[in-house]
């Protein structure tokens, strides 16, 4: 039996004011936690927006959602391994510009695709709640810690922390920023990728925007995420679009949720036989952000 839903104030600024953006479509059920993109994948909690800081989030929702990730098994995730590795090859040079070496922690490292490549540049470790994913990463010889950020007590601070499609899953982002601050060395970096709720795709597609999923409970805007990081002593050093590498076949699968254009694109891909061909996509609203911990603030504190 699932726990009752709980109402939440804005997790960024604490405001009790909010307006409903999208109504609840889960009807008391838990959301899907994998990436098989089945019929229920888009079912979601009520999405509300804070008029004070622009942040959007889910309320009411089930408490302690992080517990649901421990037993997640997601074989469909493995199908895009080659594309994730190709994406990492484009992302890592962007990080190296600001931090050429040191210790790196990949939060939500899953089966370790990014982590393995990052290990060629950094002393890299991962953090992962899913036992299935952590086992897969450890079989590759990678160092993966199975605990929450709050529970994690490393032997030394990290120079780089990465969160790829992770921050939108945090129940309490401000609390987790305090943990990131604790884990980072002075002048350390936080690098992340997430969607922009104010983007053109979000506005045009509305509830059918691909970021609107049951497991996503935070919807950031450029304004709200920078407010969050600045309030915890981080300064933005890079703002760009995430260079996501996808095959035309994977794009066709993603577009299947939009029946008209999806069928046309799938037929085009099949006709030309280009399903395995890859392309780098930098879509508006796919935020790739790098923040630096304020070393001066740390020394004076």
Provide the gyration radius in Å.
19 Å
What number of domains?
A: 2
What's the CATH C level of the largest domain? Alpha Beta
CATH arch. level architecture of the largest domain: 3-Layer(aba) Sandwich
- Helix and strand run: EEEHEHEHEEHEHEHEEHHEEH
Mean pLDDT: 92
Sheet-strand content, in percent, reads 15-25%
Question: If you had to describe this structure to a student in words, what would you say it looks like?
Answer:
Helix content is 28%, strand content 22%. The protein has helices spanning 81-96, 113-118, 131-139, 173-183, 200-205, 222-230, 248-255, 259-272, 295-300, and strands at 19-22, 47-49, 56-58, 103-107, 123-127, 144-145, 158-164, 184-195, 218-219, 234-241, 244-247, 278-281, 286-293. It has a seven-stranded mixed β-sheet. The chain is built from nine helices and 13 strands. The chain has two domains: 65-243 and 283-300, Vaccinia Virus protein VP39 (Rossmann fold, 3-Layer(aba) Sandwich); 245-281, no CATH class. The model has no long low-confidence stretch (mean pLDDT 92). It is an alpha/beta fold.
Short description:
The protein has 301 residues and is an alpha/beta fold.
Key traits:
301 residues, alpha/beta, Rossmann fold, 2 domains, 9 helices, 22% strand
Show the helix and strand layout:
Elements: E1 19-22, E2 47-49, E3 56-58, H1 81-96, E4 103-107, H2 113-118, E5 123-127, H3 131-139, E6 144-145, E7 158-164, H4 173-183, E8 184-195, H5 200-205, E9 218-219, H6 222-230, E10 234-241, E11 244-247, H7 248-255, H8 259-272, E12 278-281, E13 286-293, H9 295-300
Parallel strand pairs: 4-5, 4-7, 5-6, 7-8
Antiparallel strand pairs: 1-2, 2-3, 3-9, 8-13, 10-13, 11-12
């Amino acid at each position: 039996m699932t726990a009752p839903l709980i109402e939440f104030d804005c997790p960024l600024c604490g405001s009790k004011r909010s307006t409903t953006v999208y109504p609840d479509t889960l009807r008391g059920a838990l959301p899907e936690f994998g990436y098989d993109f089945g019929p229920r994948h888009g079912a979601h909690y009520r999405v509300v927006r804070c008029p004070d800081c622009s942040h959007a989030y889910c309320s009411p929702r089930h408490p302690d959602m992080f517990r649901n990730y421990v037993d997640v098994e997601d074989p469909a995730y493995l199908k895009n391994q080659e594309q994730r590795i190709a994406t990492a090859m484009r992302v890592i040079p962007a990080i190296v510009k600001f931090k050429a070496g040191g210790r790196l922690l990949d939060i939500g490292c899953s089966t370790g695709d990014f982590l393995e490549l990052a290990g060629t540049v950094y002393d890299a470790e991962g953090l992962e709640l899913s036992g299935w994913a952590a086992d897969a990463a450890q079989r590759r010889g990678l160092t993966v810690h199975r605990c929450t950020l709050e529970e994690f007590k490393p032997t030394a601070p990290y120079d780089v922390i990465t969160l790829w499609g992770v921050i939108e899953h945090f129940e309490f982002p401000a609390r987790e920023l305090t943990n990131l601050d604790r884990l980072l060395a002075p002048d350390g970096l936080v690098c992340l990728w997430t969607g922009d709720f104010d983007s053109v795709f979000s506005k045009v597609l509305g509830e059918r925007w691909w970021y609107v999923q049951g497991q996503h409970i935070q919807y950031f805007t450029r304004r709200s995420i920078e407010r969050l990081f600045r309030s915890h002593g981080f300064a933005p050093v890079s703002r760009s679009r995430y260079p996501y590498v996808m095959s035309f076949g994977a794009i066709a699968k993603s577009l299947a949720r939009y029946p008209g254009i999806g069928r046309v694109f799938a037929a085009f891909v099949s006709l030309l036989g280009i399903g395995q061909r890859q392309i780098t996509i930098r879509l508006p609203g796919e935020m790739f952000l790098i923040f630096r911990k304020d070393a001066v603030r740390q020394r004076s504190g």
